[in-house]
Amino acid sequence: MSAPRSRRLALGVLATGALMTILDGSIVTVAMPAIQRDLHFSPTGLSWVVNAYLIAFGSLLLLAGRLGDLIGRRTMFLGGTALFTAASVLAGVAGSPATLVAARFLQGVGSAAAVAVSLGILVTLFPDAAERARAFAVFAFTGAAGAAIGQVAGGLLTDALGWHWIFLINLPIGLATIALAARTLPADRGLGLAAGADVAGAVLVTGGLMLGIYTVVTIERYGATSAHTLGLGALAVALVAGFVV
Prior knowledge:
Layout: H1 3-39, H2 43-46, H3 48-71, H4 73-92, H5 97-125, H6 129-160, H7 165-168, H8 170-184, H9 199-217, H10 219-222, H11 227-244
Helix pairs in contact: 1-3, 1-5, 1-6, 1-8, 3-4, 3-5, 3-9, 4-5, 4-8, 9-11
């Protein structure tokens, strides 16, 4: 396989990973009424089908990026995509609200692991500035298109096959992505776990981001000026400030 073709395939793999991540954040919204009817979600509980994914994804990006530096970016991408794919199957066969919410959280963890290292891999793949700019444009366009595609795909899959398939469709896509990634992404050794990480900093920033996102997504339930929102918001800011210090 020629080097240019290999790089194009690798770009396609990374773009597909980004597409799955963005799709999964939007495709589920169309199927929410069907999920609620089938699994008997309460109105409040139903929101956590989306919130669990967003909290895990948004809060773990920085930590996942650091772990990618330690164990290798390709390893991190493969592991994240594998976790996302397995969690998608779990979500597709979920028979209770708790199982679905847990699967969505795991999907967010897998997505964070894969996306956090994607741009670093692109920089390695395309050292030339002009080629890198084009690769970044393709990557960004794919992610931006995912939100619109998710709305359409979610409706079609839910109407034709049932809501389970908005998750199960990730199985063949995820397996193909893993197979191609193993062949096309550049191998890198990483710094090694012995290099260590700022554990205190990782705990502070991850905890702060997770708590901050949780506070935002629960504003509708508790109110913007409630003691719950203001207290958790202040704690989240304190944790992030501790990380900066």
